[in-house]
Amino acid sequence: MADVIPFDQRDGSLWFDGKLVPWKEAKTHVLTHGLHYASSVFEGERMYAGRIYKLKEHTHRLFESARILGMTIPFTEEEISAACMEACAVQGYTDAYVRPVAYRGSEMMAVSAQTTKIHVAIAAWSWPSYFDAETKMKGIRLDVSEWKRPAADTAPTQAKAAGLYMICTMSKHNAEAKGYADAMMLDYRGNVAEATGANIFFVKDGVLHTPIPDCFLNGITRQSVIALAKLRQIPVVVRHIHPDELTGFSECFLTGSAAEVTPVSEIGPWRFTPGEISRTLMTDYSADVRREKSLVVL
Q1: d(CA 77, CA 56)
Q2: How is the chain split among helix, strand and coil, in percent rounded to 5?
Q3: Positive or negative CA dihedral for 166, 5, 8, 90?
Q4: DSSP-assigned beta bridge partners for residue 101
């Protein structure tokens, strides 16, 4: 990791509170409310061939996440979508990862922070797909996290809120220390939930099964893959899945803006063989993100 350039030391510019600023000068104070109290929401988006996939949907979710946390973003959705494109253009990217973030500023430093300014920053950087297609088809290995996704009445689980990712980082670090690529998390009831930053799907007898997103995000990539599966007439069952059922599934894969569609070969004691459905949806998703107009409407 020694050759990785720290994110605050990169060249170029990013969009910050309504204008482009030099990347290294986009700073915030250590007494920013978002740092101390997790009053921050964000998005993870990908640009392919000059287009950000499902940009409108990502921007809308950013605003909805902010609303859930009681934050009013001081820009319109149209302005933020345009700023996402601008953040890519100023860096000269046509393929990139895009990160909008909105957070409370430093005007107040207490649990109650009603008058803090809401800041918005958008940065883009080069982040290729995790693996090439053939490497993906070997499948990645997941640990089973000791941390569970919280119940919907204990946390703002339908917001892409920074605080909800604390246990994801802890879970992923623990998994990587054991030699795994990621971890599967259960929900508060003990059912399968998701990976640390991606939704999860299973295959049995030609049918897709995926957990009900009632205490974690209904991912935009998840929704796109379900729609693509239906175009292929692949049945999709959305239901609660208990870990005891994993023995009966033949395939497994993850979905997310960063992960895209990534097959899984192992989750703790359970084994899967990435197969035709995983490959088909991986290929269909890869094609859809590069189309001038997506085949699926969310």
Answers
A1: 8
A2: 30, 30, 40
A3: negative
A4: 42, 121
Per-residue pLDDT reduced to its tens digit, 166-208: 999 999 999 999 999 999 999 999 999 999 999 999 999 999 9
- List, as own/partner pairs, every contact residues 109-112 make where C-beta atoms lie below 8 angstroms and the sequence separation is at least 24, other chains included: 109/31, 109/33, 109/36, 111/37
Tokens read off for 129 = 């797909």
pLDDT tens digits for 197-237? 999 999 999 999 999 999 999 999 999 999 999 999 999 99
d(CA 22, CA 25): 5
Contact residues for 140 (Cβ-Cβ < 8 A; gap 6+):
181, 182, 254, 262, 263, 264, 265, 266
Find the catalytic residue in 117, 136, 138, 160. Answer: 160
CB atoms within 10 A of CB 257: 23
Catalytic (active site) residue 160: yes
The DSSP 8-state label assigned to residue 95 in this structure reads S
What is the token pair recorded at 137? 């088809």
How many degrees, rounded to 5, is the angle at CA 166 between CA 160 and CA 167? 105
Structural domains for the chain: 7-125 (3.30.470.10), 133-288 (3.20.10.10)
Q: How confident is residue 1, by pLDDT bands cut at 50, 70 and 90? A: very low
- What does the alpha-carbon distance between residue 107 and residue 115 come to, in Å, rounded to a whole number? 7
Residues 278, 253: Cα–Cα separation, whole Å: 7
Tokens of 276: 């035709």
As a whole number of angstroms, the distance between CA 34 and CA 56 comes to 25
